[in-house]
Amino acid sequence: SAYAQTNFEQDVGTAIDRGIEWLANNGAFNNPSSAGDASGLAMLALLEKRASGDPTDPPQGYDGASATDQARLRSAAAYILDRANETSFYAYRDGNWMFALSEYARTGGPDKSVLAPGNADYETIKQVMDRLVDRTLAAQQRAANGYPNPIDQGYWCYTGPGCKDSSTTQFAVAGLAAAKSFYTSGKSGDDAFNDAGRAASVDTALALSRQAYELNAYVGSDNASCFTLSATERGHGYNANFGSVGGYRPSLQQTASGVYIQLFGGSNVNTPMVQQYMEWLRNR
Fold this sequence. Notes:
Layout: H1 7-25, H2 39-48, H3 67-83, H4 91-106, H5 112-115, H6 125-138, H7 166-185, H8 196-215, H9 252-264, H10 272-283
Helix pairs in contact: 2-3, 2-4, 4-6, 4-7, 6-8, 7-8, 7-9, 8-9, 9-10
C-alpha cells in the first residue's frame, strides 16, 4: 500500500540528500578520497540511503542505487581496495572500512575486475576483508595478547591492545559484525565470500567484547545532574578503566553502543545486562 511521508520524514530525506551531495562535491567519494580514514562512513551513508526517500523502504545498497550513486560507490570502494594493503591496524578506520565494504559487496558492488582491471596494486574485496579482519582480531585484548584477567579482555585501543577504550572498540565490533555477514551470507546468492573459519573467529571476538561490557558496567553518569536515577541501571563510559587515569563514568553515546556490542556478541534484548543498559538510556 502507498505510504504517505510526514513533513518531518521528507525533511530528513532532503537533509540526507543534501549531506551526500556536499560529501560528493568535496571529494569524499573520489579515489583518493578526501574523507581519508573516514571514507567508509561516507560510503555507508550512500549505501544506507533510501532511494525513494521513504524511511520504511530498505537501504538502496549498490543494486538499488542510481547510476550516479553507483559510480560514487565504485570509486569509494576502489580507494579502500587500493589503500588497505598500505596501512596497519587502526580501529576507527578499519572498522568503518569493514562495514562499508561488507554492505557494498553483499548488495552487488563489483570487485577488482571492474574497479581496477589488471592493476596488481589493488586487492579483491575478499582479500581486503580478510586483511582487515585478521589484523583486527589480532589487535584485540585477550589472554593470548597478555591480558589474563577477563575484565581486561575484549577491547581495542587505537592501534592495537593497550587500553579499555569504548570509542575505538565500538568501531572494531561493528566492523567485525559486518564482516560476519560478509562471510556467511554470500553475494546475491553466491558463496564467493563464505569463510566459516573467519566467521567463527569473529564470533569468538564478539563474545569476548560482550563479556567486557557486562563486567565493566558501571553506575552513575558523566552528567552530575542525573548521576544515579535507579538502583539497577548500568552503563559504560568512554574508557572502562574507571578509578584510574583515563577512567570515565557512563555516557549516553558509549552506553548506546554498549547495547549493540552486547547484541552482536550473542545477547538478546531480554538479556539482563542489555536491559540494564537500556534502563540507563531510558532514564536519561
